[in-house]
Amino acid sequence: MSAGAVIEQYKRWGNSVELRVFDHLPYQRRLEIARALAVATTSSAEQPLQMLPITPEEVYAKYAGVVALVDGQFGGYVGAMQPLKHGVRTMSEVGSLWVPGEFRRHGIGTSLTKSVSRLIQLDGITPYAFCNPSSKGIFDASGYQERTLRDVPEEAGSLCARCPKLGARVLGVECCDTVMVYEEQHDK
Ligand SMILES: CC(C)(COP(=O)(O)OP(=O)(O)OC[C@H]1O[C@@H](n2cnc3c(N)ncnc32)[C@H](O)[C@@H]1OP(=O)(O)O)[C@@H](O)C(=O)NCCC(=O)NCCS
Asked: In this protein, which residues make up the domain named N-acetyltransferase (predicted)?
């Protein structure tokens, strides 16, 4: 990744928000964040939202990750999976989007999504996502458009087998989430 450690800094509701590349954070910080994500995505409080559980190892294995820090505190994460070929495109799934309860509805989820999408698009990769009802608006506002399973790599549907709410899905037949593909261009 060519991006520096701090991608963006801004003030929101009197707090300083910083977006940083996960891989550039100190080891201990990465460990804490990966563990926090694993706990959050297996917690019963989040289950109705159909978010796939993620292990710390899977957080480290992502192609790219962006973290929000609110006055230095962990304020959210989004990751992009290792790219896959799909026709002429190289595509990466943006997901594991999570913002701690106390920081929600301040635009952090949207900032994270826009940021990771631009970052990987600059590498020539087309981002896509499976959105649940609470994240669909964020992806709508971040340059994504509704598509179908045919527009994303076939392997992408295999993750549905791990969906905690609805169980295994058959690719192309049905999907519990909305398939969205990033259609904006950012050349600089
Ligand atoms: C989904 C999630 C990441 C959203 O994070 P967030 O930081 O609250 O996201 P945002 O603040 O950018 O946007 C959320 C909503 O708040 C609204 N909002 C943003 N800033 C706002 C403000 N200052 N005042 C009021 N509303 C605001 C947005 O317009 C958006 O509205 P919408 O739901 O109608 O689209 C968070 O709720 C979460 O972690 N949920 C559990 C995990 C999950 O479901 N992840 C998605 C997996 S695909």
From this structure: 17-166
